[in-house]
């Protein structure tokens, strides 16, 4: 039997061409429990009762509920995107179904003991974030998120598999939609186990790639890419993207990276990318972007709450915000394009 890392999937080298099969039926179910968590936290905090007498401004609603300023906008707008609240200018109101069935004062309310009993403790951590604004990791043990991830091989591999699950739909869409014919090399910054460069290289034989990540990611990256027959077209470079030089490449990719950090650090990373790229090179950022109107992409807003829960300073953002950071970093012609499900990419040129 070949050696495997604990938690590794069975060896399989077959793959579907980019764009043919979307993982969305699976990922939508994965996100379903976060929709439930947000609903339960809204009930715990008394959102629907607070709005039963009429609309309130964001500040008034936040003050009434005791919600911390940091997660408040994402929480309220997630309820809008889920169809539970309406937002008109700066005022929030119960959506018709919420006014009818989620007001605890009404005799036909859906809020009852059985709702919480079916999901005991499910919303506790999210409700604590909403009240304190404090990330779970810092509150629990004081360790940096990535120090915890890199504590042992099992946690590293589990994190890498999670990143592949989050990224695979986007990776296949990027392989299809980005104009790779005009480039020869790419570097995936924060590559995890290499799902993004693997899908691109499988679709574009003329390309080679570098994966850049913390040293603990090397084994998983090399095993994953070798399993797909790409060992001769990829290299792994260990480093810290805040302190070490980024790899030389025609295209630098940041996938689900910027949302780990506060805005000032996102700008730092994009400036480092601008310095590393050749003239005419491109930066490609893909995330579960929040739509610019903050009304439609519920999963982007839910993921922003997850990031605030897990990582001090983390949150998701809109395409318009990303365009501003790219322009400030020196890039030109930023554009946003939808990828798969709730995911989009932002591309800009040096």
Automatic annotation (TrEMBL):
Residues 29-102 form the O-methyltransferase dimerisation domain. CDD domains: AdoMet_MTases. The active site is at residue 259. GO terms for molecular function: O-methyltransferase activity; protein dimerization activity. Keywords: Methyltransferase, S-adenosyl-L-methionine, Transferase. SUPFAM superfamilies: S-adenosyl-L-methionine-dependent methyltransferases, Winged helix' DNA-binding domain. Residues 142-331 form the O-methyltransferase C-terminal domain. The keyword Protein transport does not apply. GO terms for biological process: methylation. InterPro entries: COMT-like, COMT_C, COMT_dimerisation, SAM-dependent_MTases_sf, WH-like_DNA-bd_sf, WH_DNA-bd_sf. This is O-methyltransferase family protein.
């Amino acid at each position: 039997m070949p050696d495997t890392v604990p938690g590794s999937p069975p060896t399989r080298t077959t793959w579907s061409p980019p764009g043919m099969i979307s993982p969305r039926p699976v990922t939508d179910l994965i996100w379903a429990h976060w929709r439930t968590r947000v609903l339960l936290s809204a009930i715990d905090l008394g959102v629907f009762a607070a709005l039963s007498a009429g609309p309130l401004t964001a500040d008034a609603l936040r003050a009434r509920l005791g919600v911390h300023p940091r997660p408040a906008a994402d929480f309220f707008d997630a309820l809008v995107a889920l169809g539970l609240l309406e937002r008109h200018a700066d005022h929030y109101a119960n959506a018709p179904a919420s006014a009818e069935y989620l007001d605890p004062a009404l005799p036909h309310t859906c809020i009852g003991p059985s709702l919480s009993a079916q999901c005991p403790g499910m919303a506790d951590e999210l409700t604590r974030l909403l009240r304190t604004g404090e990330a779970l990791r810092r509150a629990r043990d004081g360790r940096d998120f990535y120090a915890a991830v890199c504590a042992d091989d099992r946690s590293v591999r589990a994190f890498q598999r999670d990143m592949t699950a989050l990224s695979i739909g986007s990776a296949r869409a990027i392989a299809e939609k980005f104009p790779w014919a005009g480039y020869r090399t790419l570097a995936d910054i924060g590559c995890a186990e290499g799902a993004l460069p693997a899908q691109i290289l499988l679709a574009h034989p003329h390309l080679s790639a570098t994966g850049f990540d913390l040293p603990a990611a090397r084994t998983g990256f090399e095993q994953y890419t070798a399993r797909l027959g790409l060992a001769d077209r990829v290299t792994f470079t260990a480093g810290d993207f805040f302190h070490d030089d980024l790899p030389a490449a025609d295209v630098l990719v940041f996938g689900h990276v910027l949302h780990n950090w506060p805005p000032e650090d996102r700008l730092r990373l994009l400036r480092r990318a601008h310095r590393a790229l050749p003239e005419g090179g491109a930066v490609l950022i893909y995330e579960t972007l929040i739509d610019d109107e903050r009304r439609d992409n519920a999963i982007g807003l839910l993921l922003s709450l997850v990031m605030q829960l897990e990582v001090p300073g983390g949150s998701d953002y809109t395409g318009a915000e990303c365009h501003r950071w790219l322009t400030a970093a020196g890039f030109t012609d930023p554009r946003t394009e939808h990828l798969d499900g709730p995911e989009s990419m932002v591309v800009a040129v040096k």
